[in-house]
Design brief:
eight-stranded parallel β-barrel; De-COase2_C; 421 residues; diaminopimelate decarboxylase activity; binds pyridoxal-5'-phosphate; TIM Barrel; 12 helices
Length: 421
């Protein structure tokens, strides 16, 4: 459930008509709902009730400082995958002991920053990384808390670009090798084992791959504990899918996921960490755009809008579906139309939807791409010198611009022309 609903014939974000925001900030823009973000975080928090746990919001889904501040205020932890994300987390008020550092390519600088600023744990992804972190920590005279991300070799049954739990993926170490790696960590003075980590992919729409992976983690927990390692935490990653296509999709709910976690891992008395990103942010946001032209082609009609692939890349990168709705509610019984919905960028890949059956629309109409709160603004670029789209946060009847649209001058003046030109 989210808080983007028609009211008096206009699509609202909570109590604010999207047309009112469009008039104030121009199009295109991202609009997020505070109540929806809050609700999604609480669903996870409640799903794990009764087990010691921390919900670590995976900020790569949406890392605006206002969203991070909201999450920190709710008591969330946070999962970061770069030095920049670590800096954002600290700036938003997350204490070090709420920050989990994931990612296959952590640099020495990033390690030093996190060790100096405070860190809950590093999720190690390889043996070379393990040895480097040990060196960095010892040089600083500290001990780094670590888990090892194990690759359970299960098929997450999701899009290949976001599946991470098969042995052919670059992530984690093979679970069969885990015992050996933990044994080496026990000999390294700069590292201290705190648990095990696993993350098998994103936009999972079935609990079975999780169940298979978590069973392997439970077995490994017993083995590693018997070997004398302190497996106090189980980081289960993120990845629970959302219904991008509302008429078709019904992915598992957080409460069902939580029940499965309890079944598979509850008996281990470990602290459960989860790292949801998409499910917290995805349906908490929309991208609102204005139709520029209706181009009637041979056999197909193109709706050309003022948003493009540089603003929301998921359709061209992952062939992702986003529901498209008009901001003005179509009259009951109105005939729909079929369009290819495209942006102005000079690439055929700049297509949001092909042969989409949707409300009849024309120049000047506002339409909204739903489920755009995750992996939307964060993946945007200024390709075609299109300034980054602004982000707006709504709460009840108020809204605020949480990242303004840069002017052309601001965009241009980030470049430097050398004197000798
Ligand atoms: C991307 C990622 C997540 C979040 O995945 P979602 O599908 O957005 O929930 C969590 N943990 C790790 C390690 C990730 O790389």
């Amino acid at each position: 459930m989210d808080h983007f609903l028609y009211r008096d014939g206009i699509l609202h974000a909570e109590d604010v008509p999207l047309s009112q925001i469009a008039a104030a900030v121009g199009t295109p823009f991202y609009c997020y709902s505070t109540a929806t973000f809050t609700r999604h975080f609480r669903l996870f928090d409640e799903a794990l009730e009764g087990m010691p746990h921390l919900v670590c919001y995976a900020m790569k889904a949406n890392s605006n400082q206002a969203i991070l501040t909201l999450m920190a205020n709710l008591g969330a932890g946070v999962d970061v995958v770069s030095g920049g994300e670590y800096a954002r987390a600290r700036a938003a008020g997350f204490e070090g002991d709420k920050i989990v550092f994931s990612g296959v390519g952590k640099t020495r600088d990033e390690m030093r920053t996190a060790l100096a600023g405070g860190i809950r744990q590093f999720n190690l992804e390889s043996e070379p990384e393990m040895r480097v972190l040990d060196q960095v920590a010892r040089a600083m005279g500290v001990v780094a808390p670590v888990t090892v991300r194990v690759n359970p070799d299960v098929d997450a049954k999701t899009h290949e670009k976001i599946a991470t739990g098969k042995s052919e993926n670059k992530f984690g170490i093979p679970i069969a090798k885990a015992r050996e790696v933990y044994a080496e960590i026990a000999t390294l003075e700069g590292l201290r084992v705190v648990g095990i980590d696993v993350h098998i992919g994103s936009q999972l729409t079935d609990l079975e791959p999780y169940r298979l992976a978590y069973r392997k983690v439970a077995e490994l927990t017993d083995v590693l504990r018997a070997d004398g390692h302190a497996i106090e935490r189980l980081d289960l990653g993120g990845g629970l899918g959302i219904p991008y296509e509302r008429s078709n999709d019904a992915p598992p709910l957080p409460v069902e996921y939580g029940a499965m976690v309890r079944e598979e891992l509850g008996h281990l008395n470990a602290e459960i960490e989860i790292e949801p990103g998409r499910l917290i942010a995805g349906n908490s946001g929309v991208l609102v755009t204005e139709v520029i032209y209706l181009k009637e082609g041979e056999g197909r009609d193109f709706l050309i809008v003022d948003a493009a692939m540089n603003d929301l890349i998921r359709p061209s990168m992952y062939a992702a579906h986003h529901d498209i709705v008009s901001v003005v509610e179509p009259a009951a019984g109105a005939d729909p139309a079929t369009y290819d919905v495209v942006g102005p960028v000079c690439e055929s890949g700049d297509t949001f939807a092909k042969q989409r059956v949707m409300a009849q629309s024309g120049p000047g109409d506002l339409i909204a791409f739903r489920s755009a709160g995750a992996y939307g603004a964060v993946m945007a670029s200024e390709y075609n010198s299109r300034p980054l789209v602004p982000e707006v946060l709504v709460s009840g009847d108020q809204f605020a611009v949480i990242r303004p649209r840069p002017s052309f001058d601001e965009m241009i003046n980030r470049d430097r022309v050398p004197e000798w030109l």
